[in-house]
Amino acid sequence: MKRTTLFVSLVLVLLAAPLAAEAQQTGKVWRIGLLMLGDRPGAMKALVEGLRELHYVEGRNLILEHRRAARNDELPTLASELVRFNPHVIVAGSGRAASALKAATKTVPIVMASSGDAIAQGLVASLARPGGNVTGFTNIATELAAKRLEILKEGAPRAVRIGVVGCQEESPLSKRQWSEVQPAAQRLGLRLVPIFVRQPEELSGAFERAMRQKIEAVLVFDCTILPRAEDVSGLVNRSRVPAMYPAPRYVQAGGLMSYGPDPTEQYRRAAVFVDKILKGAKPADLPVEQPTKFELVINLGTAKALDLTIPPSVLVRADHVIE
Q: What are the pLDDT digits (tens) for 177-192?
């Protein structure tokens, strides 16, 4: 009887040891904020999965507080709300979200899951040495704009007048993208028609005015104040013109094609920045990363609806094709 009791006690001690160790490791509860502008399907899921892979689990050692702005002017208020949540780190879903957060706090670390051009937007001093309390990802959208225009021309070779959809002209990001596509347009013999808006509800009217100028294709800039992806692609498709978009979500919503980094993967990778900061790293010392993989996504169903045949030279380069 004594031997049985001793054996049971030993088993309980052995079982309790790892549980106690785990409890010690997970005794700290980390508070993470997330601020997004517009709909980003899969973004929240990707961030949660990335955190889970690094052993941050909601309900155990993680509290995740989320805010989503429908409009640009809602960001400052929501940023202040998240700062009052007293988080250890805040993840920003766009450059504008990061700007609102940076204005709200100089001390809470901010991780950009995505930003068009972090330097042009004044978020970091440099990519190698960000300085301040912001780090994460920049999409180098300005370097991608000319490439997107080139692929659009290949996919719709007859198009000459190209409508360019973007944020207001004084936006640093739009300025940089616009300055990049102009030399490319001249080289390709294209005429660009700007369709810049300050608020999402302005796009429909601006686009109608551009259509009266007989635009034959559309290039959509990386711009966070545009309406939802399905609204933008629907507006363009109803005008029966081919278009190139900055992210796959537009193509998944019915747009013709997109070229750029996978934003969902960047949210997953943002968890790595969060982990480093929670372990003591300073945002000022964590170099801003740039995407290294870019994907061409083509919606053949949309091409068919537009009576457009995608040239084999473009189709063969597609990473994903939606039938």
A: 899 999 999 999 999 9
